[in-house]
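Final report, Chapter 2: Outcomes

The project's central promise was a pipeline that accepts a single protein chain and returns its three-dimensional structure in a standardized token representation, suitable for archiving and comparison. That pipeline is now operational. To close this chapter, we reproduce one record exactly as it appears in the project archive, with the input sequence first and the structure output second.
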Amino acid sequence: MSARRFAGPLLLIAIVVAFFGPSLFGDRAELPCNPNRWDPWRIAATPEEIAPPAVNTDCALAYYPRRAFATDRMRAGDLPLWDPYTFCGQPFLANYQSALLYPVNLALYLMEPLRAMGWFVAVHFILGGFFTIELLRTLGSSRGAAIVGGIAYGISPYFMTRIGHPTFVSTAAWIPLVLAFVFRLRDRPSLRNGAFLGGAFALAALAGFPQTLVHLHYAAALAALALLPAMSGGRARFLALYAGAVLLSFGLAAFQLFPTYEFLRESTRAAMDWPTFLSGTHHPAMIWRAWFPDLFGNPMDENLWSTLFTRGNGYFRQNYVSTLGYCGIATLALGVPGLLFARGRGYWIALLALSLAILWGTPVARLFHALPGFAFSRPDRIIVLVNLALAVGLASALDAWKEERMARMGASLLFAGAGSCALVFLLAKGTVFGALAGGRVPLDVADVTFSRTVVTTLALSLSGLAAALFVKGSAARIALVGLLVTVDLFLFGSRFHLTLPYDATFRETNEIRSMQSEVASARLLRVGGESAHLLPPGTASLYGMRDIAGINALNLDRYRTLLEAVQPGVYDRRRYTPFREENARSPVLAMLAGVPYSIAQGRPARLPPEAGAARPSRALLVYDWETVSEERMPALLTDPSFDPSKKVLLESAIAPPPLAPGRGTADIRIDDPDLVVIDASTDSGAVLFLADTHYPGWEVSVNDTPAALLRANYAFRAVPLSAGEHVVKFEFRPRSFRTGAVVAALSWALAACLVLAVRRRSA
């Protein structure tokens, strides 16, 4: 019996290891984006190293640099609360997708960051599949059917196409476990099950992707409400325990949620209007991709043309990953009719219907757009709930075949329909493809990709139809469908999968070493359109270089406002585009200690400094200051006549400046992420200006005496100094994290006491 219980997890592990083997144990990096197409790595790369495509760029620009930074600091024994390398500094732990203290990440900090990228996603493929098996067993599925359902979700196309977005995968892996505990709480509304549900919610909250967490909570709340009518009694206790579990989960994850909430209040993030929200739903043409995933091309073949379609105001593009409705031929064919036989079928049908209604931008989506949490990111990521519902339907169909003909008939019709469409597409390929392309792309651009996806669908549909019509015996049928699901999803993932050799990924080149010495304690500033791919935002941190730009869904509101005043439109979807050369000499950019680089003759080239200009420095002693309102500052700072090396604008009144400018020096002695120590010497009163962003939690002391931290030049830090020698220490100690840590410690203690109390009572 025990061996059978471990059959599912062992099979999942075998499948995942077979898929990720080269990045788990070999010399390949699980990084589905090729940085060798960008400068300066392109200069030293061979044609073979440049050839792989650059898909899922967020992986190389954001997720890997964050992991490398977190690993470096955690190994050094430092909890990195602040990121000094992007956007002139911003919170790191409070950046939700850093998932800094997520338990799986805590274990992987022992591993090299590039290898940890592969292990992270592989572990969550396994967890997602295993938790789905547990959910299906809770729903009463047979062990074999549950294993097939676990495979369908654990290696689903949603997971496969988001290998480069690891927090998407990690958060999605916890959805089935949360729902399993909701059903178990309904069956047995005990403190123990309530505590376990709270723990599952908390781990999902720490996994790092906020939108999927929102979808998870709505899915769980819908389950709790849908289960009430079937309960013979104890409804009030069930609801009380469910609400307690939600509250407990927020307490357990408070050390992450409190700082993130503070960051949200300081950031530019705002709810999207309806046209923008609608642009993130699927165009009607994308419905074909439920059967033919590569019908509109594949980014791995570099022939994607689904982006020619638009919805709403076109803000979000109809790219490959976001508009993929494919979940596997067998999963769709069996999952739809199978939901009629699932335990709690009303809930699962409602979950599928609502998710699809949002996904396709129906009037129902407009209602959800008004609900809390839905309007902060693109809605098409709710496809993960569609994948899970169909995995449940798949397992239910396999079990229902023992007695019911309806599941078999429905599956046969869907298999036959898919096969017929594929056959028509194949026989009339030129006409069909020409009509789909509409003359907007050359027919030879995507011809091979189109043919491949049609032939694959035809072969899988015929195999599934044969299984539905002719295979007898429950065990044989489950085994054959399980094999079909595995082959289908494995083939799909293999087509989309990209790994890179370790020794050719983010290597340090001569150009990078030169830039390191030039930038030093200043910051990298990109000038000119061609420099957009010069150490793209986020990657400079890999070499210890600070950057004016970066990439993140959250960006400090004042910082963005100031840079937009320098160049309107410079902020573009989580990142800053390069500055035009006429704006590169702005006093604001000089204040930020920007070292301007552009691309000249295919290589990084530093723009020559102005005659007599001092080496850029983030720390300056200034002997003239003025108190100015927040509203007036951006215009004053961007005035060409403003000299940030001689004057600073403050929002708080202090003693008047000296009658004559003094003299002094300010040298950064310690420059750690959460601690900056400056040795300053001045012969008169002065203001020490530090061109690092101002943020709640930064504290300053002068000669070990607490001092007032001023907001200077709209978004940065300053401290007044008297004449003499001073040691100025800026230290990041956010109250939000300390308070959250206390709340989390108390919550974890409470959860442990609940579980122990229940165990003692049972004993």
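Archive annotation: Residues 735-762 form the longest helix (28 residues).
This record, like all others produced under the grant, will remain available to the consortium after the project formally closes.
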